[in-house]
């Protein structure tokens, strides 16, 4: 009775809002001095380790309790081994986690639930280390085990997971991907069983499908899959978890809790909206996802929630820079730094992205030397081909703006040549590479060549609804026609560019378009239209100028000088803007 009373109190404190973690730990610790039976003691060490791991930063104490739980009873040791390996991974001690999981897998074959779960966990570690062959081998073992114990549900999950890894293995072999997509889709649709499990499998498959399309930069092609995914998560939300449980122990776990799935669907929706240029929609879904994450993190400190939060912030930061909210973007970059300070593995996985975001911010405030340093650091830290191509494309834009880096620029442009052996399969990045070539040709005065590149960009961006690239290409083409004296054709480009930029909204393209419309109307003798365009240009200039001053005055602005090691903990206050504002306008 005393044990149940203490356990009930501990659970009450753990699930309070906000959780009263210290009181929960006190209740669990009070069990141990009473010398409870061995199984009860082992379970208490597991519970203490779990609470300390999930709700505090006291890794040493969590590790101590979990290590005491591992040598004990089967219903405790496998959960303790799973949690302890997670803890080791959070501390970047993957080499310590792997043998622990291997041993647990060896002795768990009579416990189907834990055997399958531990196999997934070890496969995930190999995936993090880019050892995809070992991960696939493990999942093959898991698929066979699931078949032997009669678990069609877990076998279907493993097939889908294997498919995900095969996608990674088959980068740039897109002709082989689509048959696999079809096969896995059929496996999911043909599976009959518990409705929640069925929908869970569908969400898993559709997330893989949607992210595959987004990685390929196919924003328009992904829309039917994304719509299916959003409908699927709505269906899951209406189903009750208290349906009849599966009789097979190997079928008892989902790949993600339902609440986490909702956040993940919000996340891929934000990714799609950002790529397509629907930035207000991206903001709307980011707000929803962050609110949901805040609620979940009060009771669940699972590392995946922090990963979701960082990826959401990375995307919304890019949106802020486009919409002319640099100060907010900078504060959110600082927020990502703080999240990464709490987890070495999170920082390791996102360091390159963090420096890339700082590089983009530096471009927006015209700190080109700092932008170059940030992009160079990001290139050194990444092994991801799509991110590498994205960084190189933006670094090329820095060299174009500087105007005196021709040797370095030619070297970069050769590495992202969209006409020959483009390094990645992304439709979006290849279209961006054509735009960068067009921009460079424009600055070189090679207008016919620039028009060819920009028309290629327009053709590709229109094919996949890449609205920002379309707007940028239209306004640059309009500028070229204006320079060539073809005012009518220039107007035909600039007006739709302005309309599209207003819809996104893209502050820089609006500024550029309004300046061109002012000059075009002045040249054509349309005084009233010229005055209206000049007023618009003035308004955009003032908004950008105020935001520029605010951003450069923030203490976080000093992050632009950070290029080595973990994120700095504190920032020195700035006295004011550090760059010329004239070049911004």
TrEMBL record:
SUPFAM superfamilies: TPR-like (SSF48452)
A single Gene Ontology CC term: nucleoplasm
Location in the cell: Nucleus, Nucleoplasm
Primary residence: nucleus
Keywords of the record: Cell cycle, Cell division, Chromosome partition, Mitosis, Nucleus
GO BP annotations, alphabetical order: cell division; chromosome segregation; mitotic sister chromatid cohesion
Protein family: Belongs to the SCC4/mau-2 family.
Protein name (Swiss-Prot/TrEMBL): MAU2 chromatid cohesion factor homolog
Organism encoding this protein: Stercorarius parasiticus
Gene: Mau2
């Amino acid at each position: 009775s005393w044990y149940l009373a203490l356990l009930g109190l501990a659970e009450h404190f753990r699930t309070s809002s906000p959780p009263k973690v210290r009181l929960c730990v006190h209740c669990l610790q009070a069990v141990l001095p009473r010398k409870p039976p061995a199984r009860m003691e082992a379970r208490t060490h597991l519970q203490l380790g779990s609470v300390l791991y999930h709700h505090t930063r006291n890794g040493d104490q969590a590790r101590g309790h979990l290590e005491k739980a591992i040598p004990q009873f089967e219903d405790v040791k496998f959960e303790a081994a799973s949690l302890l390996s997670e803890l080791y991974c959070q501390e970047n001690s993957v080499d310590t986690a792997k043998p622990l999981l291997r041993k647990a897998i060896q002795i768990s074959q009579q416990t189907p639930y834990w055997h399958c779960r531990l196999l997934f966990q070890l496969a995930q570690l190999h995936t993090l280390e880019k050892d995809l062959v070992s991960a696939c081998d493990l999942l093959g073992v898991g698929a066979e085990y699931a078949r032997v114990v009669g678990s069609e549900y877990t076998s279907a999950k493993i097939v889908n997971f294997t498919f995900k890894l095969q996608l990674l293995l088959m980068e740039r072999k897109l002709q082989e991907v689509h048959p696999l997509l079809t096969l896995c889709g059929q496996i999911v649709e043909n599976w009959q069983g518990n409705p929640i499990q069925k929908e869970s499998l569908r969400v898993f498959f559709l997330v893989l499908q949607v992210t595959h399309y987004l990685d390929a930069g196919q924003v328009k092609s992904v829309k039917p899959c994304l719509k299916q995914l959003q409908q699927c998560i709505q269906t899951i939300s209406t189903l009750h978890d208290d349906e009849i449980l599966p009789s097979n122990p190997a079928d008892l776990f989902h790949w993600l809790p339902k609440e986490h799935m909702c956040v993940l669907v919000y996340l891929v929706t934000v990714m799609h909206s950002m790529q397509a240029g629907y930035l207000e929609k991206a903001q709307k879904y980011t707000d929803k996802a962050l609110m949901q994450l805040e609620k979940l993190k009060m009771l669940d400190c699972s590392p995946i929630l922090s990963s979701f939060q960082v990826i959401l912030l990375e995307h919304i930061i890019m949106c802020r820079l486009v919409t002319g909210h640099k100060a907010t973007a900078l504060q959110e970059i600082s927020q990502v730094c703080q999240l990464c300070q709490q987890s070495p593995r999170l920082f390791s996985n996102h360091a390159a992205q963090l420096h890339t975001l700082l590089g983009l911010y530096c471009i927006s405030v015209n700190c080109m030397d700092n932008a170059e340093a940030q992009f160079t650091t990001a290139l050194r830290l990444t092994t991801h081909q799509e991110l590498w191509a994205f960084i190189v494309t933006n670094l090329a834009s820095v060299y174009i703006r500087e105007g005196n880096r021709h040797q370095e620029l030619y070297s970069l442009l050769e590495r992202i040549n969209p006409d020959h052996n483009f390094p990645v399969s992304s439709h979006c990045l290849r279209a961006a590479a054509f735009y960068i070539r067009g921009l460079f040709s424009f600055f070189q005065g090679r207008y016919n060549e620039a028009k060819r590149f920009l028309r290629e960009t327009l053709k590709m961006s229109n094919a996949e609804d890449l609205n920002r690239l379309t707007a940028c290409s239209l306004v640059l083409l309009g500028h070229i026609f204006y320079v060539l004296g073809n005012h009518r054709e220039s107007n035909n480009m600039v007006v739709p560019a302005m309309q599209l930029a207003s819809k996104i909204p893209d502050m820089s393209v609006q500024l550029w378009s309004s300046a061109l419309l002012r000059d075009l109307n002045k040249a054509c003798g349309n005084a009233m239209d010229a005055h209206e365009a000049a007023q618009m240009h003035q308004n955009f200039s003032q908004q950008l100028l105020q935001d520029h001053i605010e951003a450069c005055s923030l203490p976080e602005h000093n992050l632009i000088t950070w290029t080595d090691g973990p994120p700095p903990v504190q920032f020195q206050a700035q006295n004011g803007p550090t760059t010329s504002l004239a070049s911004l306008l």
